[in-house]
Amino acid sequence: MGEREEVKLLGTWYSPVVARAKIALRLKSVDYDYFEEDLFGSKSELLLKSNPVHKKVPVLIHNNKPILESLNIVEYIDETWNASGPSILPSHPHDRSQARFWSAFVDDKWFPTLIATTITKSENAKAKGMEEVGEGLLLLEDAFISISKGERFFGGEVIGFMDICLGSFLVILKAREKLKGENILDKSKTPSLCKWANQFLADHTVKNVVPEIDRVVKFMREFEAETQTRA
Q: What positions does the domain GST C-terminal occupy (predicted)?
């Protein structure tokens, strides 16, 4: 037996993209040391050294080598510990390309639109943004039906790459629905996605990794109040 590999994860408890790395590490049964960062205060020297360009989390450090960006980290975990746990990325090239395409859609278009509606003060812009968020969810509903092929997750019967990507934002969605009284995930419009969301959050790999919704609600309420005070 060789020496234990050194695996560290730098993150913040409330970050959905940090949750991605945690879920992937759990899927692969990888032991790691977790370090909580204070992004609004004094960032650690380890973070600044490991990610000098963006100075943000998550950062995975494997045997003193940093790996950056959440989905890149998920792929790295999948490839590095390929003999442990289920494959996170699909094995077929077309399925893999679909997972990457829709993950890019979530990260580059859908979620930024949701965030923009949160911070805008224009009611017209907010309404237009939420319409676009809803349209994006309809596209993701169709994508889920196509990719899952009738199984529980985008990845089939086990959580995969696209599940981790979109699923990491579910706690924020649920928290915002609770805080704002919004109905973002609408069962009448996206029934398959709603069922998937409940199954994802209830999965043993996920439920002890992502933060509690009430705790996120409290964080969002305090953050908004502080932001308004500074404005």
A: 92-229
